[in-house]
Design a protein that fits this description.
By secondary structure, the protein is of the alpha/beta class. The chain contains seven helices and six strands, in the order αβαβααβββαβαα. It folds into two domains: 66 residues, no CATH class; 115 residues, Endonuclease, Chain A, CATH 3.40.960.10. It starts with a helix and ends in a 13-residue tail after the last helix.
């Protein structure tokens, strides 16, 4: 509607990110921008303070030369692609290659957004089996920071309360022994499918420890 009012095919929205946001605040800003992109057909640019906790936003550097007709800005962070491994993550690519050879791994979706309630911020799940309600999260070194660690734990609890089983692996673990990681994921997936066949409620299952 806004674009049509100005006689344009599309609209772009520029949002200034305030400084000092905690992980939850940055997550809310990014989730809102992603919702506008996916549902409102609006292009969103985030300006202002750099994001310190969210790594799934394309970052570009605008220079004066770009305005003078020189080569334009170059993305410095690859965007996440819904349904596929993140193009900038060699670890996700390694895990996907290992999963591709397992028949039980069918139904997996990479980088899918989950919003348990319309008023809650959407979260991007690294790897999801929606029919089995299983989530696999892949943690880089930044997840060791105290604020990020706490945010991850809160996120896991919300997912578990929504009936999802959650497994977390570090990049180092996957890169060192992807076969063992795939075996553990497969153990969880098969157990969930047995429970479903037997009519058990996923919401009452306890998370599987690593």
């Amino acid at each position: 509607m806004v674009a049509q009012g100005f006689g344009r095919p599309r609209a772009n929205l520029l949002i200034e990110v305030p400084a000092g946001l905690d992980p939850a605040g940055e997550q809310a800003v990014v989730a809102g921008a992603e919702w506008l992109c996916h549902h409102g057909r609006v292009g969103v640019w985030l300006a202002g303070a750099p994001l310190r906790h969210e790594d799934r936003v394309v970052t570009v550097v605008l220079t004066r030369e770009a305005a003078d007709g020189q080569p334009g800005p170059v993305p410095t962070t690859p965007p996440a692609v819904v349904g596929r491994p993140h193009p900038g993550s060699a670890t996700e690519a390694l895990l996907e290659a290992a999963l591709a050879g397992e028949s039980w791994s069918a139904g997996r979706i990479w980088n899918r957004y989950h919003q348990p309630h319309p008023l809650s911020p959407a979260v991007c799940l690294d790897l999801l089996w929606p029919d089995d309600r299983c989530v696999v999260e892949i943690d880089g070194p930044e997840h060791c920071r105290p604020d990020r660690f706490e945010a991850d734990r809160q996120r896991d609890v919300r997912l578990q309360l929504d009936g999802y089983a959650v497994l977390r692996f570090t990049n180092a673990r996957i890169n060192h022994d992807v076969g063992a990681v795939v075996h553990q994921i497969g153990t969880l997936i098969r157990a969930r499918r047995r429970d479903l066949a037997e009519g058990r409620s996923h919401g009452r299952r306890r998370p599987h420890p690593l």
